[in-house]
Amino acid sequence: MIPCNQCEYFVQGPNGQVGFTCQPFSTIKEPECLTKWQLVKLDTLVRAYQATLQMYNRLAPLQEKMFRHMQREVDDMEESDSWKYDEDNDDETTPPL
Q1: Residue 87: how many CA atoms within 13 Å on its side-chain side?
Q2: Counting C-beta atoms within 10 Å of the first and last residue's C-beta, which end of the chain has fewer, N or C?
Q3: What is the DSSP letter of 82?
């Protein structure tokens, strides 16, 4: 088995990240290469998922604040319309609107 860093399809980024430019269906040199390629792709998926979670964690306080503000707005609207449904002023002989 040849080491990955000696393969022509091996790419290393400036920050040390490892990548492969090989295609799994056409340019794989050895069976172990496919396993390594799958691990690199899996690592990419995990990093993307972690970045998504970090973004959700940053947005969570803003989202809670927005929900509280919306709840206050809805409560204010219900309070302003409460005169329409006030039971103390309704006569039983008047039909509901």
Answers
A1: 0
A2: C
A3: G
Are 37 and 24 in contact, with CB atoms under 8 Å apart? yes
Question: Are the C-beta atoms of residues 11 and 20 closer than 8 Å to each other?
Answer: yes
Chain-centroid distance of CA 17 in Å reads 23
Contact between residue 9 and residue 24 where contact means Cβ atoms under 8 Å apart: no
- Rounded-to-integer distance, Cα 81 and Cα 79, Å: 5
Distance between alpha carbon 5 and the CA centroid of its chain, in Å? 34
Question: Does the pLDDT at position 1 exceed 80?
Answer: no
Pull the structure tokens for residue 70. Answer: 């919306």
Read off the tokens for 17. Answer: 């990240």
Give per-residue pLDDT as tens, 37-87.
Answer: 888 889 989 999 999 999 999 999 999 999 999 999 999 998 888 878 766
Q: Which candidate, 48, 23, 46, 43, places its Cα nearest to that of 34?
A: 23
The length of the chain in residues reads 97
